[in-house]
Design goal:
Blueprint (H helix, E strand, L loop, with lengths): L2 E6 L7 H7 L4 E6 L1 H6 L9 E6 L8 H6 L7 E6 L3 E2 H7 L3 E5 L1 H21 L14 E2 L8 H14 L6 E5 L5 H10 L8 E5 L5 H9 L15 H4 L4 E5 L6 H13 L1 E2 L8 E2 L3 E6 L3 H6 L5 H8 L2 E4 L9 H16 L5 E2 L1 H9 L5 H15 L4 E2 L6 H5 L5 H5 L5 H15 L4 H8 L3 H11 L3
Helix pairs in contact: 6-7, 13-15, 18-19, 19-20
């Protein structure tokens, strides 16, 4: 059967020697530009060999190539690049990655290398010379950034991921990447067979959380229907507990018992269940203050804090904004089949100067929008939301926090919580961890409408 080869490149003219000789060979050769490969979903054609020429640094991996990596049939991949490549590329392709060569080698020896790959395909054997895949080509995968805190976080993620049942605490503002960091820990586990489950501890009662986490042996009015708890459902996997500071003390105590021995009893049950479920706790607060105030179990806190990962806000690592912007521009360019060649210096300066209250998540959504509306492959000022131009300085209320009394901070916080709960005083009191009576007194004292 005639072999099918896909050659993906935006500079095919550089390979005229190979292309000229290819007409005389006994294989079908299809040529694509990178965006064309995305639009035509070439992963659905079942090629025997992919030659992928990368003429720019890859921060992300095209969707078609990720989908191709899920195919179970035998094929080989040759990559031509003078740039470092995402380590994910090696992990998803594995032994199907035949060889990585630079542009000079490709110009001189591509015919011979393709011939070797074709012989491997004919014999249905993977490339035995794995030493050719030089580790100098690989970029460490993880949280995107070169800031010292992010480098440390990535190092910790690598360490924790190798210990399959070790719990950890991830702390950072909303939008800093706590869920992604949690998934990196989960996916780094060897022989990872269990699920990745996220449970938000906020807005749940004690009974609801107990039933959700530990399960119910027999249906009853207090805990609801019989069911397996999330700890059991996530066996050999990961259970992420968002907003761990909102977990009631009774639930914290039971969770601590589980962490001590990896066994628990379902509600109403007598037979212990043993599971190897990793617990990852997330919070945007310094839990030490919650411990001092008696609303968080000290022993549980120290259990989690032994492996704590801190993700700084984007405003504290502005040096990473350009790298993150390029990463998201390329990622969404691959996703929407739009090549972004340039981000104007003025647009980049605006992005670097903005305060980013929504952190990396906000930047990601903004760049996705910019890619969608961009023209001629450039993201300029006109592609950015107008609020960036008008709000580059630190918001007034953030300046206020360093220049006012504790009472004023408390008043502002109560106003925000009431606004968030649409004036629901019971819900607001629950968030503030005070009684409804105390909340009414404070509202009256501060003259809050």
């Amino acid at each position: 059967m005639q072999q099918k080869i896909a050659f993906i490149s935006d500079r095919l003219v550089e390979f005229h020697t190979f292309l000229k000789s290819a007409h005389n060979n006994e294989f079908r050769l299809d040529l694509f530009e990178h965006l064309e490969a995305i639009r035509k979903s070439i992963q659905n054609t079942y090629y025997d060999l992919f030659i992928i020429d990368i003429d720019e640094e890859w921060y992300a991996i095209p969707l078609w190539l990720r989908e191709q990596a899920t195919h179970q049939y035998f094929y080989q991949v040759i990559i031509i690049s003078n740039h470092a490549l995402p380590k994910t590329l090696k992990s998803i392709l594995g032994e199907r990655l035949f060889q990585i060569i630079n542009l000079k080698t490709a110009k001189e020896n591509l015919n011979e290398i393709v011939s070797q790959a074709r012989k491997n395909i004919e014999n249905h054997q993977f490339n035995p010379a794995q030493q050719m895949l030089n580790t100098e080509y690989w970029i460490h995968d993880g949280l995107v950034g070169k800031n010292e805190s992010i480098v440390r976080a990535n190092e910790f993620i690598q360490i924790v991921s190798k210990a399959p049942t070790t719990p950890c605490l991830i702390r950072g503002e909303n939008g800093t990447g706590k869920n992604y960091a949690s998934y990196l820990i989960h996916s780094g586990r060897e022989h990872n067979e269990g699920p990745f489950i996220i449970k938000n501890c906020e807005y749940s009662t004690t009974n609801e959380l107990l039933a959700d986490l530990f399960g119910v042996e027999e249906e009853n009015s207090a805990f609801g229907p019989k069911r397996k708890g999330l700890l059991e459902q996530a066996a050999n996997g990961t259970l992420v507990l968002k907003n761990i500071e909102r977990m009631p003390l009774d639930v914290q105590h039971r969770l601590l018992i589980y962490l001590d021995g990896h066994t628990f009893k379902p509600l109403g049950g007598e037979i212990p269940i043993q599971v190897d479920t990793r617990i990852i706790a997330q919070t945007r607060f310094d839990l030490d203050k919650f411990v001092r105030n008696g609303v968080f179990n000290a022993e549980l806190y120290f259990h989690l804090k032994s492996f704590e990962i801190y993700l700084p806000p984007l405003r504290d690592r502005r040096s990473d904004i350009e790298l993150l912007t390029k990463y998201f521009a390329q990622y969404f360019g691959f996703w929407y089949a739009k090549k972004i060649n340039k981000i104007s210096p003025m647009a980049m300066n605006i992005l670097k100067d903005y305060y980013w209250p929504g952190n990396v998540s906000q930047l990601k959504e903004l760049i996705e929008r910019s890619v969608l509306i961009s023209e001629n492959g450039e993201i300029g000022i006109k592609n950015l939301p107008t609020y960036l131009n008008n709000s580059t300085a630190i918001p007034e209320d953030m300046e206020l926090l360093g220049n006012c009394s504790l009472k004023e901070i408390e008043r502002v916080h109560i106003e925000r919580v009431l606004a968030r709960t649409n004036g629901n005083k019971s819900r607001a009191a629950d968030i503030l961890q005070i009684s409804r009576t105390t909340l009414r007194e404070k509202i009256k004292s501060y003259g809050i409408d």
